[in-house]
Amino acid sequence: MNIYYKNNRINSCLIFVILIVIVVSGNSCRKFIEIDSPATSITGENVFTNDETAAAIMTGIYTNISFKSFSGAGGGPTLSFYLGLSADEFVLSNDASGNIDYQQYYSNTLNSQSNPSFWPSLYNTIFITNSVIEGLNNTTSINEKLKTQLQGEAKFVRAFCYFYLVNLYGDVPIATSIDYKLNSVLPRSSRLEVYNRVIEDLKDAQTLLNEFYTESDGITSHSTTDRLRPTKGAATAMLARTYLYMHDYKNAEDQATQIINDLQYDFSGIGLNSVFLTNSREAIWQLQSVQIGWNTKDARLFVLPNTGPNADHPVYLSGKFLNNFEVNDQRKINWIDSVSVDNVTYYYPFKYKNATLDAPITEYEMVLRLGEQYLIRAEARGQQNNINGSQSDINIIRSRAGLPNTSADNKVSLLTVILHERQVELFTEWGHRWLDLNRTNSTDTIMNEITPTKGGIWNSNWSLYPIPLSEIQANPSLANKQNKGYN
Length: 487
Hints:
The protein has helices spanning 7-24, 30-33, 51-68, 79-86, 100-106, 118-137, 144-169, 180-183, 191-208, 232-245, 249-260, 297-302, 319-322, 330-335, 370-383, 387-400, 411-425, 432-439, 443-450, 469-474, and strands at residues 90-92, 283-287, 315-317, 336-341, 344-349, 365-369. It is mainly alpha-helical and 487 residues long. The chain has a two-stranded antiparallel sheet with strand order 1-3. Strand 4 and strand 5 (344-349) form a beta hairpin. The longest helix is centred in the N-terminal third of the chain and has 26 residues, at 144-169.
């Protein structure tokens, strides 16, 4: 979808989100949706006149994110899948090597016409959040508590999208309105400007969002509520991550500390096999699958059948990645499984274990969790030469994995250990490995070695993805502004 919308497309977009809520809701996702079908069609003019339809718009956004995972392909592979292909986490099976889309991400040979591109689906979500923010600002018909919560949710999601845009594409246009004439000619803004936009939205979201989790109506809250709608904690967690990426280590530490000290989030009594369950105490924000019949898209995609990899299960974990685990690391034991076929053993991610069609819902897809916050704070403290504090945070992660305390005792060695811990803790989750390589300037070192084994030759420009040709053709301000290394 191009970066601009005509007026009628805004209303259509709102209708589309509500229709997603109605169409994909079923027994497998009823708890997530739990909104009755509107009696009449929804339009941009009347969608913000009552609480139910207003809440349903944001629910529809989460449904759309879960269904498409920003890939633009309903029910298809996830962002975790494609960014894992780009990095050094996966091997693409021979059965899937003929899939051009997979192969281009895997061999790092993307071009401006490669599919999927995350650019249009991320901007699509941004434009819907823009319409939500504008609609809420212009209505007096909605419960004020709900209105505040939904404004916070919309700003949080918009920030989340811009975070991925700036890290996948670098300088990108900043659209904060539904003015199609303005949006159609927006130039690329600098990374710093985009990050500042993310920070501003997340700070607003911190102020607006509920402290505790709410049900699908956006208001009701109780202790057993699933963690499917963003809270102040989600905004704080994303702020901690964003500050870390901006090298603002003091603020990164402060925000991560808020989460770590929040009694809603806890490691106590949570074994590794319980981390990714529904309503996990480690979860800061989760998504429920709306792909009917499956708990999570990642389990359906990553958990290999007894016959091994195939076109429907196209990847397995690389030997180089597996070799990064220390002896007795319980994450390797609990979060990785294997199948043997014709004397060949294939290892696969097993964080999500429920890969049985039509099984009861026991797992949600994890988006933000406490483990990352300890690693953020460890890195922020290490960068500030707080050696003891950094060691303490690393050791909490290592202890849960059944490992001894780190022996690293200076800034350089600690930062090396932290990058390693991030690799083996956050693997196959929302592209962390790919983003970590890029932000730590490690991409060339790793990819010069890895890309030839995947059938390509690494170009240092390719740490950023190409802007889709359709977007360049539609927006004159993007002409001759393609990322380096792409035609």
